[in-house]
Amino acid sequence: MADTTRKFKNALLSSDPDAADAISEEYLASKTALDFAEEVVVKALDEIGDGWQKGEYALSQVYMSGRICEDLIDKVLPDESGLRKGKPKIALALLNDYHALGKRIVYAVLRAGGFQLIDYGRVEAEDLVTRVIEDKVEILLISVLMLSSALQVKEIVSNLKNAGHKVNIVVGGAPFRLDRKLWQEVGADAVGYTAADALHIVHSLEGGNRND
Amino acid sequence: MTKSKMTSMQRVLTTLDHQEPDRVPFFLLLTMHGAKELGMGLKEYFSKAENVIEGQERLQNKYGHDCYLGFFFAPIEIQAWGGEVVFYDNGPVNSGEPFIKNIKQINTLEPPVISDSPVLQEVLKTIRFLHEKAAGEVPVLGVALSPFSVPVMQLGFEAYLELIYNEPELFDRLMAVNEHFCIEWANAQLAAGATAICYFDPVSSPTIIPRELYLKTGFQVASRAIAKIKGPIATHMASGRALPIIDDLAKTGTGAVGVSADEDLGILKQACCDKISVIGNLNGLEMIHWSREEAARTVKNAIDAAAAGGGFILSDNHGEIPYQVPDEVLLAISDAVRAYGYYPQRLAGE
Lengths: 212, 350
Hints:
The structure holds 2 protein chains of 2 kinds.
Chain A: H1 3-13, H2 17-28, H3 33-53, H4 59-76, E1 90-95, H5 101-112, E2 117-123, H6 125-134, E3 139-144, H7 147-162, E4 168-173, H8 174-178, H9 182-185, E5 190-192, H10 195-209
Parallel strand pairs in A: 1-2, 1-3, 3-4, 4-5
Helix pairs in contact in A: 1-2, 1-3, 3-4, 4-5, 5-10, 6-7
Chain B: H1 8-16, H2 33-38, H3 42-45, H4 49-63, E1 68-69, H5 76-80, E2 85-86, E3 94-95, H6 118-134, E4 140-145, H7 151-155, H8 157-166, H9 168-192, E5 196-200, H10 211-216, H11 218-228, E6 233-236, H12 246-251, E7 256-258, H13 265-272, E8 277-282, H14 284-287, H15 292-306, E9 312-316, H16 327-340
Parallel strand pairs in B: 1-4, 4-5, 5-6, 6-7, 7-8, 8-9
Antiparallel strand pairs in B: 2-3
Helix pairs in contact in B: 4-6, 9-11, 13-15, 15-16
């Protein structure tokens, strides 16, 4: 890992936005904002997400890192910069319950990765299907906390299919992490165990591996 | 030599004393399966103590596990605080929209009065009946959410993490109010006949916050609260990891720790040594798909890894078995404990 990325990662793990800001300013003196997003931010978040999966870091560090990066990227890579255009239409939803932390982390990491996305917030299954069709969403990320919500993904997949809407469904959340076969059982196209996984999956789908 | 048969209470107390009982005690922490037994929806089931008492009696008769659980659902405390809960047909009751919508509300927050809360009174009634039914032979478990973990439901996870990191004064004030309630609630359950209190504290897990932060926050809260709870405590990490903080947990005064399926049970047992007992760590979500053979193999592996010398209660990793776990799997677990769980156990590696 390059020295800048390592320093940036340490600033994130210490929850130090000022240090992260200073590193970004120094980097941007000689490189572009997109380089910063891809070479520094995404790599640092990737390492932190991977470390959480291995039990090296805590979820609070993943969350605070995502929040710091979200603010930083909104500053250096604003929506109106034009650099986010040309990406697939992505939406993110929390199914049923009020525990939005996982979704928030994924939102921050995807934004930091240069993606623009629709955040549906907390939704019920039926409403989600309607909105995905209306918005012509191509990649749908669904976050759940409860097993009962995870099982509802099956119904969402089936209803979208019956409506003839082609969309890639990526799932994540505790039930999928604890039961590694569950994502297939509910008919999702992919599962992410960390926010960085979600970013890699979206990159892969953007690269042409989408359902059509 | 086979040991003489013990009651569940003797079995559990012996293992908690880091001695070998007659067989490995096991807790099937079933909150929702009682509703299935009674042919009721979950909302109706949890509406009165009589249903939960009947459910717990039937489950204990059916599976022969070593406890009664006087616990309804985690957000019942949120109901007592005036928050909303959401019932589902096939899953645990969840907390609704957080009732602290602005962190400034913490300044005037007052804890609920237990005697004024109808839902908490139903729990106490359940514990009283189960205690009477158990006649000292089966432990009755009560549950209190840790003052440090309950804010996830009071404020929402994001707002709570921001509070921990950025608002130390409001955090301290919230802990003071929550500690007051937690101590009162735990002691009320003990007074009603609970044998021990399960202190659910997943936010203290290194899965959620780094150890350095835990030592300044959740550790301090647990140490203060546990010191004032007048009975034995088992801290449950509710699927979160515990290994990096085992020694710290022992210093909070807890007697046991409920551990995650993400960690190696044998290593955990070694780390706990004779300081605290281990409760766990069957993966509740995987249980849904287990065959009888998988159930037997997994139970045997857990017993092989952690049972020698006592200090071990076989249970799930989360502190609540999912509604979808079939009765056949629970019976297979129960049979496997009886097949492989009798002492003396050989030490791992022998």
